[in-house]
Amino acid sequence: MALDLFAGVPVADYAAALVWYERLLGAPPAFIPNDSEAVFELEEHRYLVIEHLPEHTGHARHTVFVGDFDERVKAIAGRGLEPAHRETYSNGVRKVIYRDPEGNEIGFGGGPVDQ
Questions:
Q1: What is this structure's pTM?
Q2: Could you read off the pLDDT tens digit of each residue along the chain, which spans 115 residues?
């Protein structure tokens, strides 16, 4: 079964969000389908979409589990963004949360250090 995932993030200031998400994700959008949406491809068939929806902004909460956790967090820091929150669960799984200027949360998770 083929599966594509589009995870949406509502924003009020589309132009500012576009700049922030490019910094977070390290690349421009894969495509811009219209004047109010930008689609970032995280992996094949897995997308993060920012959309101008001011009435819903600040409520998105997405976590992406990645195999390159340490390298990704370091690369994001190199682009000037630091996590708002870091945690390590009892099983060693790690998570960082970034908050965009409107309060939406984008988290990255990674396996225990010894994996």
A1: 0.93
A2: 789 999 999 999 999 999 999 999 999 999 999 999 999 999 999 999 999 999 999 999 999 999 999 999 999 999 999 999 999 999 999 999 999 999 999 999 999 987 5
In the chain, DSSP assigns E strands to 5-11, 31-34, 37-43, 46-52, 61-65, 85-88, 94-99, 105-110
Positive or negative torsion for Cα 63, 44, 28, 66:
positive
> Residue holding tokens 């870091």?
86
* CB contact at 8 A, 12 and 50: no
> Is 108:74 a contact under the CB 8 Å cutoff?
no
